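Standup, Tuesday
Yesterday: got the pipeline producing structure tokens again.
Today: sanity-check two examples.
Blockers: none.

Example 1:
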Amino acid sequence: MNFFLNRLDNLDIGDESFEFIPQFAKKEMNLDGRIVGVHGTFISHEHDVMPLLREIGLKEQIGIGMYDALFRKPVMIFLLASTEEDLTFTKEQLDQRDAFIGLNLNNFAQALSIGCWFIKDSCVSAVHAYMSNPINGYYSQFHRDMDVTLGNGQIKEIYFSPTEMKEAMALMERVLVLLMPDQSGAGQIEFARSAETSILEVDKAISTEGTSFTRALSLLQEARRTGQIAAKMDKYCSVLECLYALKREHKKRISNITAAYIGADSTDREEIRMNMRDIYGIRSDKSHGDHLKYLKDHDEETLAKLSTVLDGYVRSVFRKVIKLDELNYAPAAQEAAKTSAYFQGIAKSFFMEMDGMNDLMG
């Protein structure tokens, strides 16, 4: 039996545990999985797996400090049936095979992080992962440079209720579908070895030619990965431009579309428009390497708060858009034009005075 564990940082689920592998997948793939809280249980074949995990030598394999940190946090655990390869492969062969297995299983945790973000501002990270097989004594440690931050650039543990976790897991499934090659256009991931360390060049394989939802998710992760506020806001704006199918930056267009699409009433819509115009000013200064004019009249704390507001706007827009497959356009210009026209119509219904909306794709 192979155990694969994703350590989930900055997440609090108490002692709860959550099953996320569908029954049919368990049988077809001979795979089981659960997200387990600090004192949670993982019942598989009528037995709790957690006591066994503490007896398979992980402490010696990964070190006392990392072991203690692992079990102080929630963990996404996979159980994979052993194969003949586990007994016949060399360590180097197992490293290469399990590097790709580990990447795919860590993708679940990365998708969960995005699913949690869709619920509320959060920075669930899955940087550390481990694979261990007590039958052949094999183990491997995985590190993925995917730390993320809150909308204001901070890192903070966030509590998720059982209801929120179930919704986050449902969104995790949606994200995983969008990461598939037919949606993402991802290229071949190259494998390399350096001093017995396996290296997968994941970022290099990410495509800019996938469908719009996948490209927007990639931009979202770029925004979440930085704690530098102006850079974060820049990437958040790119997410919106991608979802709206805007071909060029335009402060008024994106401000009006966002306000029309998620604004609750006229007062809310006007506030969104004003905030987005400030945000675009910050973005322009950042992209041109200028000092932020916004900081002449506002302090850094206010800037961070505005970034959190923008994070909320992007979340509200993305949550609505991701439910509508017809807006997930391919690179073809005619598909982008349809999505652009959709958002143009929404904006026009509230802001008839908008200049230049007829050449939105111009």
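Example 2:
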Amino acid sequence: MPNALRDECFILQEPLVQHIKKYDYRLKRYQINYSIVLLRCYDDVSFSQLSNCVRQTDRLITLDQHTCAIIFDSTNTETGQLAANNFLAHCKCTFCSSQFFTSIVNANQYDDIDTMVPELFTQLHDSIENNRAELSS
């Protein structure tokens, strides 16, 4: 991982952890599952324009000018992936010329958020790096 991207991903993890504590509590207490999608775009996009395409129970969180997270409440692995695909399709229609990188996890697959969030950012990094490798070959 390039140092700048690695450092940036590390810095963004803590704010995300703070936002998902409520959802994690609900998972542990009531078994209400959720999925998290990270979305990164290096173009100047306004993530607030995308807030109208998430359900009221979902949450769009802007982490920095290039990265946002979406918490899809009450989703399992399949429905979380479907929601992420629908959201990404909307992003591509809204910002036609922009390239988006994504990663997704479902909370039920992890023991705790301290394991889940770093994995989410690792997947995002891998998505970005794989695209760079494809472009350079």
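Quick observation on example 2: The CA atoms of residues 43 and 98 lie 6 Å apart. Residues 3-30 form the longest helix (28 residues).
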